[in-house]
Amino acid sequence: MITLRQVDAFRAVMVTGTVTGASVMLEISQPAVTRLIQDLERVLGFNLFVREGRQILPTSEGRMFFSEVETAHLGLDQLTRSAINIREHKEGGLRVVTIPSVVTMFIGAILKVFNSAYPNVAVSLEVQPTQRVFEYITSGQCDLGLSTLPMESPLIISKSVLRGQSVCIFPKGHRLGHKSKITPKDLENEEFISYRSDSLYRHRVDQVFSGAEVDRKLRYEARTTDAVCKLVASGLGVSVIGPSFPGVHLEPSIEVRPFSPALHGDLALLYLKHRESGRLIEAFSEAVVQALPKGRRRRSR
């Protein structure tokens, strides 16, 4: 039977790279580490390490087993953190997943409002692309999300908190500067900076240009709105970003114009449909509404 002590010894050798390092990490002798590894190998039925000169290197089986050990260790770490919260009389923890643009624009103000009401609640923030937010919520890795719509899932409730729409951005001094509104035709043959190809918003923008039969020069793409804005600010091209929200200011060297046809996108709180929202989730929702600039609200779905 595998023991936790054996697994600890194996993990320590993998993390430190040496038996000596593992012995220091575990505060036991080097022979004790070696015995634990040997005992574990006998139980598993395969070698975890091979020696090459003075080095000890993991086998392919050892690397595969380490991946499983790390997954289990993350679970133990979570249990440890929970025990610490209970011991220190904290009121709980909240795991939030959001998108890069929300971190850039809003998350500081939101957490400040939340912390003033719940100073002893630990908040774990995960930042992922829009298309992965639902995955983090439905898998239980996070309690709630703050992301842009439209996205549909029968498993998740979406509560819109701010209305936004697409805008066209270009460097100051660009030929488009005299226009009050930008259409796809205005961007024909322009160097266009897109979101990455796996972005849901990228596909919405591409469909608009395809429908208008307008060609763009597509040499540059970036993962986040912040990165797209920085590329535009440096003069590399123009872009259509979104959703843009009231009260949000972009790079000073960028000009912003409404884009038509408008691509609307709400910022929404997301949580599992068949799960009680709970006091902390409700409190965080209230903090979001308080912290965000005033915008048109839509009903939960």
CATH topology of the largest domain: D-Maltodextrin-Binding Protein, domain 2
**CATH C-level category of the largest domain:** Alpha Beta
**Structural class, judged by helices and strands?**
alpha/beta
Number of domains: 3
Q: What is the helix tally?
A: 10
Report on this model:
By secondary structure, this protein is α/β, with parallel strands linked by helices. The chain folds into three domains: 4-87, Arc Repressor Mutant, subunit A (Orthogonal Bundle); 94-161 and 267-291, D-Maltodextrin-Binding Protein, domain 2; 163-265, Periplasmic binding protein-like II (D-Maltodextrin-Binding Protein, domain 2, 3-Layer(aba) Sandwich). The chain is 42% helix and 24% strand. Strands 3, 4, 5, 6, 9, 10 and 11 form a seven-stranded mixed β-sheet that branches. Strands 1-2 form a two-stranded antiparallel ribbon. Helix 1 packs across helix 2. The chain starts with a helix and ends in a 10-residue tail after the last helix. The model is unreliable at 295-301 (pLDDT under 50).
